[in-house]
Amino acid sequence: MAFSEDVKIKAMVACGRYCCICHKFCGNNMEVHHIKAQADGGDNSFENAIPLCFDCHAIVRQYDPKHPKGIKFSEKELVQHRDAWYKHMHQENTNARKQCKTNKIEPIKIYHQKGYKNIMLNKVSNGKEILTYLIETYGITYDEEAETLEEVKLIGEFIQNIKELLDFNDLLDEPYDRIMTAFNLTESIKELDRVGFWVFVGKEDKVVTGGIKEPEIFPTLLIRIVRKDSSEIIKVNFENR
Fold it and tell me: How many helices, marked H, and strands, marked E, lie in the chain?
């Protein structure tokens, strides 16, 4: 038996979808772990549940008592990790509600960091090169020079593929998915090359401000698709959008 949907939802809300051990925001990449294993008599109650990221869940489960190495996560420690994080998130939500009542919440805005116009973009010729830029990237900014319907279609499909990868970046952890994704991107780059385009990419750490949090870094993938006969220097010069 596993935890009920009600218990999972309650746990996700309590932790804010942050791991209770490493405190990393995980979105969909969360699992609910039995603090006391079912084999040892643990039940499926909220009190026996701790939300963890994939990595911490694997670490908690992999300890081998027959060949002990390191210090095992005890049931008591897991409870304390969970309760401390639940308390922290409850306080964060309480402070946020108080701030909403007393202060005007500034709208979310994304700014370029100082010197962004000097970021050089690199020409890519295959999908593997693009995948290296997608690690820990959360947004995309692009520019293109499409003129014909065929060009619009090819560029549009290429950009859409990149956007979907950003939404499901965790899928690239699987070797087969990485190979197929790199292959498909390479084919798209070849098609763009066939109709006379080069693809340049880079990354910029933009700054997100507003809301109730302190300014945060927002790594953004930069893509520029230009004609081969373009004489301009390939530098990032995007305006805020």
Answer: 6, 7
CB contact at 8 A, 220 and 142 = no
Q: What predicted TM-score, i.e. pTM, was given to this entire model?
A: 0.50
138 and 60 in one domain?
no
- CB hemisphere CA count around 71 (13 angstroms): 4
| Vertex 168: Cα angle to 163 and 170 (nearest 5) | 135
- Rg (Cα) of the chain, in Å, rounded? 23
Of 165, 94, 96, 91, nearest to 127 (Cα)? Answer: 165
Rounded Cα distance between 130 and 132, Å, is 5
Residue 237 lies in a domain: no
Domain that holds residue 96: 5-102
Is 81 in a helix, a strand, or coil? helix
Amino acid 95: pLDDT: 77
In a domain, 47, yes or no: yes
Q: Does residue 88 sit within a domain?
A: yes
Q: Would residue 87 count as lying in a domain? A: yes
E strand segments, 77-211:
106-111, 122-124, 139-144, 197-211
Select from 102, 123, 158 the last residue of a domain: 102
Mean pLDDT of 32-53: 92
Q: Tell whether the model's pLDDT for residue 115 goes beyond 70.
A: no
The arithmetic mean of pLDDT across residues 76-90, rounded, is 91
Domain end residue (candidates: 102, 120, 143): 102
